[in-house]
Input
Amino acid sequence: MSEPLTTERRTARGHMHAEAFCLMQYACKVCRHFEVIWNSRDGVTPFCTACPSCGQPHLYHVNFMMDRFAPDHKPHRGQRVWTSMTRERAYELARRNISTRRKPGPETDMVIDSVANSYYQDGAGPDIRIEGYAEVV
Output
């Protein structure tokens, strides 16, 4: 069993981010869905994300002091995992999000570039995947 993190231990581990390799609790303020998401990297994670149960963007990171350092965690099938954003995934998401709001054209391409770069963050941006599943586009 992992021990709760303290500020001193976080720094002592040598990671750049407090939530590096942690199992973190998320709870939905709308439907009360609860889950544990693993951060598989030394990177920041979003404070909130879309709830898989109700679809609302109200699944919040809760109980910060209960985050558990678990660098060797093996996610179970269906568990969501924070990963690093890839450039390809950032462009895929940007195209999907922008194409529903804008007509194709040079200005749209510039917007897609800008949005993709904001998602990618030079490789530091977070992405989320579901263990054992591949997204079908």
